[in-house]
Design goal:
The complex is a heterodimer.
Chain A (H helix, E strand, L loop, with lengths): L9 E2 L1 H6 L6 E6 L5 H4 L6 E3 L16 H10 L7 E5 L1 H16 L5 E4 L2 H7 L29 H10 L3 E4 L3 H5 L22 E2 L15 H9 L9 E4 L5 H12 L5 E3 L3 H5 L14
Parallel strand pairs in A: 1-5, 2-3, 2-4, 4-5, 6-7, 6-8, 8-9
Chain B lengths: L2 E11 L2 E10 L2 E7 L6 E7 L2 H16 L10
Antiparallel strand pairs in B: 1-2, 2-3, 3-4
Classes of the chains: A alpha/beta, B alpha+beta.
Chain lengths: 283, 75
């Protein structure tokens, strides 16, 4: 898409409609609400369940490499398949899936701009039928840890102020007024944010119809909070999915080179004994 | 099948801003309620009419939002 640093990672709804039957393209719906797919989805799309298929279901972690390969294979995705992800909540969990696909080295994975909301709002065709999928062969690489931060690195980066931290949660979560988004379960013991973090809520990167704001608007949004790509960036939220969305914006739409997702996020940091915490708005 | 009669609006519910989307899908209506900030869907309802779907979704959303604890500066 025009103007973005790597516009090739975004497709619009019209492009998806044109490529519904393209054997080189696999459409995948990834929703927060895992029952949304059954209600009606883009014809030709399969679904991944983020609670069971995109994470390690025993320990807290992303999907292990061998399970990722199995998921791709049974989804009919080969290493050269163009994968287009979309979902509800402005592609919240679709971005989480994209981040994991990039971690494991998939070359051509894209988001449908605007996600499920845009497709519905435009009155495009829906179906309740799941497509027949022919099993493929898949070999993952990585994981590419240049895209992911673990706690020790995040701690060190915070102490040394070597990175720009972007807290993509809501202002009320950032200040510590609430411990979880309104209406969702609390998952941490303490409220607040990582010292030095800038609060740039993920939703501010999107327009009302769910599509991304323009390159210039996004650049200004982050620059206004001191994030301009002049030093490495770490994005985090509560459990690492909202921050995948902002990671996508920073890495691909703005083209900042060194951007990592700290998926341990506030659920990890806000439960640590002795971890430094800032409360209230950033000074 | 398509989503038809698509509508969205914002309101306040249980002291929190919410986004309300409703549309007809085939023979029934669907309503989705999100918490605006951060924008997570917190409830969904279905019914034979828009009003019925909204009633179900808003009832569930209000129950969930009512559980949200607000902390003072001392935590």
């Amino acid at each position: 898409m025009a103007d973005y640093a790597h516009g090739e990672v975004l497709v619009d709804t019209a492009w998806v409609e044109e490529h519904q039957q393209d054997p080189k393209v696999r459409l995948v719906e990834v929703d927060v609400d895992t029952s949304a797919y059954e209600q009606g989805h883009v014809p030709g799309a399969i679904a991944w369940n983020w609670t069971t298929q995109l994470c390690d279901t025993v320990r807290r972690d992303i999907i292990p490499k061998d399970q990722f390969e199995q998921l791709m294979a049974k989804s009919g995705i080969g290493n050269d398949t163009t994968v287009v992800l979309y979902g509800d909540n402005n592609n919240w969990f679709a971005a989480w899936a994209l981040w994991q696909m990039k971690l494991y080295g998939h070359k051509d994975v894209r988001l449908m701009n605007g996600g499920r909301k845009k497709w519905l709002e435009e009155g495009r065709e829906l179906t309740t039928e799941a497509p027949a999928v022919e099993r493929a062969t898949y070999n993952a690489t990585g994981p590419d840890l240049s895209l992911r931060t673990f706690l020790p690195e995040a701690m060190k980066a915070s102490e040394s102020a070597s990175h720009a931290f972007v807290d993509v949660r809501s202002p009320d979560e950032f200040t510590g007024k609430i411990l979880a988004p309104p209406g969702l379960p609390e998952t941490c013991q303490r409220g607040g944010h990582i010292p030095g973090a800038a609060n740039i809520p993920w939703g501010q990167t999107c327009k009302e119809d769910g599509t991304f704001k323009s390159f210039d608007q996004l650049k200004e949004l982050y620059a206004s909070k001191g994030v301009s790509g002049d030093k490495p960036i770490i994005a985090y939220c509560r459990i690492g999915e909202r921050s995948s969305h902002s990671w996508f914006v920073l890495k691909y739409l703005l083209g900042y080179n060194d951007v990592k997702n700290y998926d341990g996020s506030w659920t990890e940091w806000g439960n640590l004994v002795g971890a430094p915490v800032e409360r209230g708005e950033r000074a | 099948m398509r989503a038809e009669e698509y509508q969205r609006r914002r309101e306040e519910l249980a002291g929190w801003p919410v986004g309300i989307v409703s549309y007809r899908l085939g023979e029934h209506f669907v309503c989705e309620v999100d918490n605006v900030t951060p924008g997570a869907r917190i409830a969904r309802g279905e019914g034979g009419s828009r009003e019925e779907a909204e009633r179900a979704a808003l009832r569930d959303a209000e129950r969930r939002l009512g559980r949200t604890r607000v902390h003072g500066p001392e935590g």
